[in-house]
Each structure stands twice: as structure tokens, then as C-alpha cells.
Amino acid sequence: MDWMYHLSDWLQLLTAGHEPWDSYARYLPQLLEGAWVTLKLVVLSGIAGILLAIPLALLRVSKNPWLWVLPYCYIFFFRGTPLLVQIFLVYYGLSQFESIRNSGWLWDQVLSQPYWCAIITFSLHTAAYIAELFRGAIQSVPRGEVEAAMALGLSKAKQYRKIILPRAFGMILPAYGNEVILMLKGSALASTITLLDLMGATRNVISRTYMNLEFFLLAGVMYLVIAAVIIGLFRLLENFFNAHQRATHLPVKQLDAQLQDEHLRDNAR
Amino acid sequence: MDLHGFGHLLLAGTWITLKLAFVSLFFGLILGLLGATAKLSSIRVLRWIATTYTTLMRGLPELLLVLIIYFGTTELLLRMFDVYVELSAFAAGVAALSIAFGAYATEVFRGALQELPKGQQEAALSLGLSRIKAFWHVMLPQLWRLALPGLGNLFLVLLKDTALVSVIGLNDLMRQAYVAAGFTKLPFTFYLAAAFIYLLLTILFMQLLSLMEKRANRGYAGGLR
């Protein structure tokens, strides 16, 4: 990406040797590339996480113990252990097994690459949290709506696809947004497995410039900017998905309570 | 569990992890209470400071905070006062974790304070208690019950975040697992062992918290919560 280096050269003309601005301008391309990696990590694992979370949550709400016990253990493990342990387990841990090291493509292209290890870990991690959100939302879809779907003669699968899941998705959106922000914060751990994300690039630059404070502060500002952008995007999404109540910005719990109130009022009428 | 002779190392690390978690919890709770009172105070500057604090902490990675405090404080003191102070990894960890915990605890305490019936404070004040006494003897004991579930969750998060301090070299559970994995070339075994110890601690504290919640809610059967 050439434009970043042009921008950097141009900025250095402006800063003209004034520190720390001169160093900021000089190392801006590295940091922007790091921020791009961070963004990719968060977006990819956010999407993979929600795709994984849906089947997990569906199994988790099942009443058959054979079905819910495995998702339950999965969710419990990933929510009960530190993300740092999980990422080390995947990146350093898997190399302990010879069969994995000799697995050809899988090892060469995926499991020995810090980038993919980070994405795999973050997806598995965030899926556990999102599944728990989904479970709560599925169970709090107003009873009347499910009954109405049954009365219309929809099959169980259709009830979930047309009524329950879209409804649950609208309900968890604000909480899902929080989860993505937490993932953004957690993604800094990718730097511990040698990945040059925003945190990794920052540490790299610091090892060259010895300007600890300045560059950590700059990285902090960049993380805050990314967080602000994500929050803004989710506001838009909420407006779109919960159009029927024009984004109340209430937390899920309150939202549920509100929904139930409205539901009761509807019945009373 | 011997784990190739490294079992006792993991246990020693667990002890440090627990110490780190509890010391950070202590300072974090104080920060949270201060933050909540500042957020609800009538003084504009205090509200502004508290809001900035919680907003910043919601977007900053904990790892960045740990590194900035560990590497930055020394440099800052050197530059500003020309004194060289080397912060221990433990102290830096406590500072970072309690600042992070305090930001989220501020929201929990604020929510709990707002949930408290206003009449409680008014009654205490009309009995002639000073504001501080009213807070200490009337509000705080009730606050505890309302804030406990939220604080419990935050403590479990804190417990897991302690692993980050291993990055700056504190010999906690995570770091010991790292060392053992390096020595034995059995990374999966040791990180899994560490994971199970964290899991065990989580289960333990979840049980403890539910007991504490039960105790805090005695006399409220089917009541407010």
C-alpha cells in the first residue's frame, strides 16, 4: 500500500524534526498496517463467531441431555479460561502432536501461522460468549409470538428460521456489539504470538525508537477510534434490525422486560 | 498431579495469581465506588472525569494498559522528576487490573445506587446523619446486595485478566505454565493444565459468589430480586 508511505513522507515534511510527531509520521505506515490486521481479526472472528454460535445455542436450548451437554462444556471451558491460555494452546500447544505437525497443508498453511491461529482462537472464544447471549434471547422471545407461529402451522424448523432466530438476533444486537468491542480489546493478545497487529506493530516500533509512552499512547488513541467506529456501526445496525422500536439503546435485559410489558399490554387489549 | 516435576511450580503460580486478583479487587472496588459517587455527584467536573475514565477504559485493551503502566511509569517519572523508579511487575499488574476493574465496577455501583429507593437516603438524612454516615451505614450495606451479582461477574473477568501480567514477567500461573512448557517441550500439556486450574478457580468462586448472594438476599424471599 504505497499511499501510506507517500502520506508518511508528506507528514514528515510538516513535522520537520519535531518529536514525537516526526516519529509518528515516520512509523505511521507500520501502525496503520497493524490496525488493518487488528480490524481483519475482529471482523473475521466476529462473523465466524456468530455463525458458530447459532448451532451451539440451538443445541444448548435443547431438552435432550445428549444434545446440550457438549455445547455446555464447550461454552463453560471458553468462558472460564483466559483468552491468553487459549491462544497459546492453539499456537504453541498443537505443535506438541506429531500427527498435527505432519498433517501437510493444514499445518503449513493454517496451524503454524499466527494469523490463522489467532482467528481460530478468537472465533472459538467469542462464539462461546455469543452462544450464551443467543440462548438467553431465544428463551425470551415472547411466548405469544411462538404460539402464533405454531397456530399458523409453521414447522419447528420454520418457526426458528422465520420467527425465533430473527427476533433473537434483534434482541442480542446491542450485547453482540459489546462482545465485538471486547473482542477488539482481546485481539491485542495476538501480539503475544508474534503477530503484527496494532499492538504488535506498536511494540515493534517501540523496540526501534525507545519511545514507550508516546507510541503506547498513540496506539491507545487508535484503539479508541476503532472502538468508536464499531459502536457507530452497531447503532446503525440496531436501527435497521429493531426498526419496530427505533433503537431504544436499552441493554438486553431492560429490552426484554420492555418487550414482555408490551406483550402483556397487547394481551390485555 | 506431578506433571514432570512442574506441578508445584504451577501451584506456586496459582498462589501469585490469586494474590494479584485479590489485591486488584480491593483497589478496584475502591476505584469503582469513587467512580460511581463521582458520576452521580452534582459537581460537573467530577462527572466529566468519571465519564471519561469509564469511556476510555471500555475501548482500551487491558494488555495495552499493563504495558503502558509497566514501561511508561518509569519513563514518565524519569522525565518529569528525574528519578529512576523501577516498578515491579506485581505492582504494575495491580495498578492496571484495578484501573480496568474500577471502570466496569463504576457502572455496576452506579446502577445499584440508582436502584436504591431514594427514601432510604432521605430518611437517613432527616434522622440527622451526616452525608458520609448515611452513605456508610445506610446506603452501602444495601448497595452490597444490589451490586453483588455484577461485581461477581467482574471478579471472574479479573481473575482471567491476571494472565496478562505474565507478559511483563510476573511468575503467575500462566508464566509458570510457559516456563514449564519451554523446559519439557510439552506445551499442550502445560497450557491445558493451566486452563484447568483457571477453570477450577472459576468454579470455586462461582460457588462462593452464589453463597454470598444467598446470604445477601436473606430476608428478601421473592422480594426485590
Automatic annotation (TrEMBL), chain A:
Coiled coil: none annotated. It is a multi-pass membrane protein. Signal peptide: none annotated. It holds the Pfam family BPD_transp_1. It is found in: Cell inner membrane; Cell membrane. One of its GO terms (biological process) is amino acid transport. The chain crosses the membrane at residues 35-59, 66-93, 113-134, 168-195, 215-237. Residues 35-234 form the ABC transmembrane type-1 domain. InterPro entries: AA_ABC_transptr_permease_3TM, ArtM/GltK/GlnP/TcyL/YhdX-like, MetI-like, MetI-like_sf. PROSITE patterns: ABC_TM1. Belongs to the binding-protein-dependent transport system permease family. HisMQ subfamily. This is Arginine ABC transporter permease protein ArtM. It comes from Marinospirillum alkaliphilum DSM 21637.
From TrEMBL, chain B:
GO terms for cellular component: ATP-binding cassette (ABC) transporter complex. It holds the Pfam family BPD_transp_1. This is Amino acid ABC transporter membrane protein 1, PAAT family (TC 3.A.1.3.-). NCBIfam families: HEQRo_perm_3TM. It comes from Marinospirillum alkaliphilum DSM 21637. Belongs to the binding-protein-dependent transport system permease family. HisMQ subfamily. It is a multi-pass membrane protein. Keywords: Amino-acid transport, Cell inner membrane, Cell membrane, Membrane, Transmembrane, Transmembrane helix, Transport. GO terms for molecular function: transmembrane transporter activity. The keyword Transmembrane helix applies.
